[in-house]
């Protein structure tokens, strides 16, 4: 049995932001480790016929209300950026480079991107912004900046996105424990119970 909790997400997902703030504590309670797996929701939307929530009548307005309500309930900052939903491939590529080259920074980078984008409402998806954010954590800015244009890193993110679709991951966040998949931040309580009970 794997000791990992897979956390599949897109940096543009507010629900992934909320779940990302809790998943490590949940994992620690069960002596597990989080395996962060950013991917791109765009291909998933194409495969399922879905759209970003804010582009859907009625559902978009509800989602905006729900995000603000969740933030108030949990006492955490939330500010929907003007660019939302933004393309997130630069942040995702940066994560995979950090995971390979400076792994101690990878999880901190995830939290930093989410905090900047949804906690502070900052525009952080341009290459310069991503490199600057990573550098403040201790990343090698010059090497990361070069790597972001590397075809191999672009191919890696495409492969992770293809893997997500092949595994029927169609939204964010998707949490997988011991082969069992849970979709949505509202399933964290169920994930916790599943780990406690050993499934059902």
From TrEMBL:
Q: What is its EC number?
A: 5.99.1.4
The membrane-spanning stretches of this chain are: none
Sorted UniProt keywords:
Isomerase
Q: What InterPro entries does the database record attribute to this sequence?
A: DSBA-like_thioredoxin_dom (IPR001853), GST_Kappa/NadH (IPR051924), HCCAis_GSTk (IPR014440), NahD-like (IPR044087), Thioredoxin-like_sf (IPR036249)
- Domain DSBA-like thioredoxin, by residue range, is 5-194
Its recorded reaction(s) are: 2-hydroxychromene-2-carboxylate = (3E)-4-(2-hydroxyphenyl)-2-oxobut-3-enoate
Coiled-coil residue spans: none
Gene Ontology molecular function, alphabetical? isomerase activity
Name a Pfam family for this protein.
DSBA
Protein family (similarity comment) = Belongs to the GST superfamily. NadH family.
**UniProt name for this protein:** 2-hydroxychromene-2-carboxylate isomerase
- The source organism is Dongia soli
């Amino acid at each position: 049995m794997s000791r990992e909790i897979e956390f599949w997400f897109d940096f543009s997902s507010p629900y992934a932001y909320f779940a990302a703030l809790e998943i490590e504590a949940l994992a620690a309670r069960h002596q597990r480790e989080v395996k962060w797996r950013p991917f791109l929701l765009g291909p998933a939307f194409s495969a399922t016929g879905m759209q970003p929530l804010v582009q859907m009548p009625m559902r978009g307005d509800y989602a905006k209300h729900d995000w603000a309500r969740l933030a108030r309930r949990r006492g955490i900052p939330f500010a929907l950026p003007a660019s939302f939903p933004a393309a997130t491939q630069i942040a995702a590529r940066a994560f995979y480079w950090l995971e390979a080259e400076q792994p101690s920074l990878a999880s901190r980078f995830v939290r930093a991107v989410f905090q900047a984008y949804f906690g502070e409402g900052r525009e952080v998806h341009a290459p310069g912004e991503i490199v600057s954010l990573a550098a403040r954590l201790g990343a090698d800015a010059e090497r990361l900046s070069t790597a972001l244009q590397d075809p191999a890193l672009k191919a890696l993110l495409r492969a992770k996105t293809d893997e997500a679709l092949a595994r029927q991951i169609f939204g964010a966040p998707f949490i997988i424990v011991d082969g069992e998949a849970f979709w949505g931040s509202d399933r964290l309580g169920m994930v916790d119970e599943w780990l406690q009970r050993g499934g059902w």
